[in-house]
């Protein structure tokens, strides 16, 4: 089968690899109809998340059709259409049963203290092959796979695999309540999804901070207030917008690959910290293999964290879902301490939120599809990775159509797209670079 495979830093390829097989009684094989590229995938290629094994299939987002189940999978059968949550959990340990699926005691072969397992990641994260392939083996399928109604099409469902659950989790971590003013640092896919999630959880005002113009445009389409960090100091802007108080809640949706402002007052203010950021970059990505302006690690690994702490109000809450791998060891704890902040962070407990989000889309309360700004065939996946990595205009979220047979084509969800929390935009903005299927 065809799959996107990691061979080294700056080196990913579309390879022919063996199809997966059932290895455990709780496994299932899923034929992937739609996958997607996530910012986390870029960490592996840029070098900001080490520990990848050569030959690993990438990807942790997928929608598909079950083709085979192990003897222990009693709730699914071949032909069922499903969304695959990005993290893997057993469903029986104390953590899973308390809803902390990302900290499952049994999923990680390195033991109960090893932490989160997700598809297509490094050995420390379970060493599982990913979902940017024609078929995938799903461990603990009786827990992990979430069935889909035909009223939720592939374009909607693919965003429920990781993007919207993570954004929902980020809003929960930030403790958003009715009427809160929320600042979201980062207008990539997670940050965009966090606008709708924050609104659904009661936010009164939403301010989005980024430096890429088309991402800010998409946030404005959702009626968020926007701050361009290349045009103004984002901390000062948020303070001005909040009467000098700061945001009640902040979501850090950026993580380790944060970029310094290229110009403007924020760039001027950070020049004295250039040496510190250079040190942090070398610490976060000790090995790098850039190709021109592609596969370049972020040049300010803790900048989003610093801005988040500075723009939140005293006694406020910062929820961090942007990825910070273990080698990132700097955080503005002193500033956070002196402001009595609550800091919450970590990997999303996907399986806790995916079923509810599926129901929200099926009933029309939420329609995530306008976040998919590019839909390409699998044969174009490597080029799509490069465009997404370079943050090229229009490459906000990239879906990979793997196979049309068994999928529900974009726009055919019968009732979704009517809710007041719908992400604004039109499917007319979704550019096809190979069509919705390969």
Automatic annotation (TrEMBL):
Domain Enoyl reductase (ER) positions: 8-323
List every stretch annotated Disordered: 277-299, 409-438
| Compositional bias of kind Low complexity | 411-425
- Cofactor(s) needed: Zn(2+)
Q: Which SMART domains match?
A: PKS_ER (SM00829)
Q: Which domain of life is it from?
A: Bacteria
Question: Which SUPFAM superfamilies does the UniProt record give?
Answer: GroES-like, NAD(P)-binding Rossmann-fold domains
Q: Where is the composition biased (Gly residues)?
A: 426-438
Which keywords annotate this record?
Metal-binding, Oxidoreductase, Zinc
Q: Which GO terms describe its molecular function?
A: oxidoreductase activity; zinc ion binding
InterPro entries from the xrefs? ADH-like_C, ADH-like_N, ADH_Zn_CS, ER, GroES-like_sf, NAD(P)-bd_dom_sf
PANTHER family given in the database record: ALCOHOL DEHYDROGENASE (ZN-DEPENDENT)-RELATED, ZINC-TYPE ALCOHOL DEHYDROGENASE-LIKE
Please report which protein family the annotation says this sequence is part of.
Belongs to the zinc-containing alcohol dehydrogenase family.
Output this protein's name.
Glutathione-dependent formaldehyde dehydrogenase
């Amino acid at each position: 089968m065809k799959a996107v495979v990691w061979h080294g830093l700056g080196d990913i390829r579309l390879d022919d690899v063996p199809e997966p097989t059932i290895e455990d009684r709780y496994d299932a094989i899923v034929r992937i109809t739609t996958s997607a590229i996530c910012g986390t995938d870029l960490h592996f290629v840029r070098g900001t998340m080490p520990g990848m094994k050569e030959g690993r299939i990438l990807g942790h987002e997928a929608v598909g059709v079950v083709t085979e189940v192990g003897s222990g999978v009693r709730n699914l059968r071949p032909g069922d259409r499903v969304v695959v949550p990005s993290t893997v959990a057993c469903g029986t340990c104390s953590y899973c049963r308390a809803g902390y699926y990302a900290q499952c005691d049994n999923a990680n072969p390195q033991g109960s203290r090893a932490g989160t397992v997700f598809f297509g990641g490094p050995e420390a994260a379970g060493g599982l092959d990913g979902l940017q392939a024609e078929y995938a083996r799903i461990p603990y399928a009786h827990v992990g796979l979430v069935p889909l109604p035909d009223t939720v099409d592939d374009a909607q469902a693919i965003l429920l695999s990781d993007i919207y659950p993570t954004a929902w989790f980020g809003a929960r971590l930030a403790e958003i309540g009715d009427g809160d003013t929320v600042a979201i640092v980062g207008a990539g896919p997670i940050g965009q999804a966090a606008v709708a999630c924050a609104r659904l959880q009661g936010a009164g005002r939403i301010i989005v901070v980024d430096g890429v113009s088309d991402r800010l445009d998409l946030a404005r389409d959702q009626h968020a207030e926007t701050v361009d960090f290349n045009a103004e100091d984002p901390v000062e802007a948020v303070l001005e917008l909040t009467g000098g108080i700061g945001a009640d809640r902040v979501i850090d949706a950026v993580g380790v690959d944060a970029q310094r402002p290229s110009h403007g007052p924020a760039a001027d203010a950070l020049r004295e910290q250039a040496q510190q950021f250079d040190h942090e970059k070398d610490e976060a990505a000790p090995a790098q293999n850039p190709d021109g302006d592609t596969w370049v690690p972020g040049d300010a690994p803790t900048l989003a964290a610093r801005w988040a702490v500075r723009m939140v109000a005293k006694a406020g809450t910062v929820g961090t879902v942007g990825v910070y791998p273990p080698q990132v060891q700097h955080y503005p704890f002193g500033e956070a301490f002196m402001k009595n902040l609550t800091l919450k962070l970590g990997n999303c407990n996907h399986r806790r939120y995916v079923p509810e989000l599926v129901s929200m889309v099926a009933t029309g309360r939420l329609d995530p599809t306008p976040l998919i700004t590019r839909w390409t065939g699998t044969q174009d996946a490597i080029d799509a990775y490069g465009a997404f990595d370079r943050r090229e205009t229009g490459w906000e979220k990239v879906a990979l159509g793997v196979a049309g047979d068994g999928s529900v084509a974009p726009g055919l969800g019968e009732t979704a797209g009517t809710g007041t929390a719908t992400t604004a935009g039109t499917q007319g903005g979704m550019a096809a670079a190979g069509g919705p299927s390969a």
